[in-house]
């Protein structure tokens, strides 16, 4: 897992003025909205006796620990200890680590790291979100898999004819034409044309049986976002996924599916069902991959020409871990102090 990146950690609409617990990156956080409506993120641990702040309440812009009533502001500083009397002071170490947050694409993004604001990699763009003519639906999917395998699967062009032969893959035409990888800051994209199978279900009403090649674009953004663009001959669809590491064994994919056709609410159920089906087709394959994480050693697995864009992801991940030292582990000593981020080399 990596530090010094933004993570899409939660749906914006689900965060209110009372605490919400978040498990991500092998760590527990607490989220809530302050009096101004801004999302606040702190470690979910009171420095006094280690109680979970997410079990507490929020009042007056502060979060109150359920165990002894200690109150903390949005910056993580303790502002009240009810048991104190007279001139008793609040200990200087009565602090909880806080995290920068932003809201984009209907998600709360949380920055985990120690880079100055000007040096932080940007939140991945999704300019179609909220644009007139595009309909967006949200969903999520839980994997018992390492996030790196899930991310690579989201940009793997050659697996569709085999894993998705019952949905959109065409097993009769598995060839992947040579493509050019287009690098961009903290990621890359590639475009190909795939031969689609005859349409079925709702699609058979609007698509001809003899279909032109489907213009397909895949992209990734470090550390864990992928984007799939499909041009179905005048109808466009996008699946944007944030593949969030819960821990080393589990990944939660929060996804947005956008379409510029059938934009009425009547089509949302079908769109959600089809998107979910794609994840279900991928699930048994991805969860059975070994080793569980993508190897740092490029020679550990054999590569083909069609693997060009996943190899860019592997190189960038290795750069972050080995050259930049952005590996993440949590150091939580027994003393009452905020959790510290420590760089490791893996």
From TrEMBL:
Asked if the keyword Heme belongs to this entry, the reply reads: no
Q: Where is the Rieske domain?
A: 6-110
Superkingdom of this entry's organism? Answer: Bacteria
Keywords annotated in UniProt:
2Fe-2S, Dioxygenase, Iron, Iron-sulfur, Metal-binding, Oxidoreductase
Q: Does the keyword Transferase apply?
A: no
GO MF annotation terms: 2 iron, 2 sulfur cluster binding; dioxygenase activity; metal ion binding
**SUPFAM superfamilies reported in the protein's UniProt record:** Bet v1-like (SSF55961), ISP domain (SSF50022)
Q: What is this protein called?
A: Phenylpropionate dioxygenase, large terminal subunit
Q: Record the organism.
A: Nannocystis exedens
């Amino acid at each position: 897992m990596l530090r010094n990146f933004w993570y899409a950690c939660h749906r914006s609409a689900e965060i209110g003025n009372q605490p919400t617990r978040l498990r991500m990156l092998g760590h527990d956080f607490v989220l809530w909205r302050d009096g101004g409506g801004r999302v606040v993120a702190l470690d979910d641990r009171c420095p006094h006796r280690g109680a979970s702040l997410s079990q507490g309440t929020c009042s007056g812009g502060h979060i109150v620990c359920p165990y002894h009533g200690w109150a903390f502001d949005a910056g993580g500083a303790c502002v009240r200890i009810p048991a104190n009397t007279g001139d008793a002071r609040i200990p200087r170490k009565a602090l909880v680590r806080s995290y920068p947050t932003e809201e984009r694409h209907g998600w709360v993004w949380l920055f985990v790291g120690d880079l100055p604001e000007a040096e932080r990699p940007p939140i991945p763009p999704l300019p179609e979100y909220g644009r007139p003519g595009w309909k967006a639906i949200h969903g999520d999917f839980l994997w018992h898999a390492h996030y790196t395998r899930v991310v690579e699967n989201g940009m793997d062009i050659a697996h569709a004819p085999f894993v998705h032969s019952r949905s959109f893959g065409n097993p009769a035409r598995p060839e992947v034409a040579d493509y050019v990888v287009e690098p961009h800051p903290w990621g890359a994209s590639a475009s190909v044309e795939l031969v689609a199978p005859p349409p079925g279900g709702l699609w058979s009403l609007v698509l001809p049986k003899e279909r032109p090649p489907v213009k397909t674009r895949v992209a990734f953004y470090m550390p864990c976002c992928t984007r799939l663009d499909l041009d179905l001959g005048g109808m466009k669809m996008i699946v944007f996924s944030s593949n969030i590491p819960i821990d080393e064994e589990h990944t939660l994919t929060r996804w947005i599916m956008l379409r510029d056709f059938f934009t009425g609410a009547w089509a949302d159920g079908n769109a959600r069902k089809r998107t979910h089906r794609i994840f279900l087709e991928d699930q048994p394959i991805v969860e059975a991959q070994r080793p569980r994480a993508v190897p740092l050693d490029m020679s550990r697995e054999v590569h083909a020409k069609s693997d060009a864009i996943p190899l860019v992801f592997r190189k960038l991940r290795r750069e972050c871990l080995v050259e930049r030292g952005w590996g993440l582990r949590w150091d939580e000593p027994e003393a009452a102090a905020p959790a510290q981020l420590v760089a490791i080399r893996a």
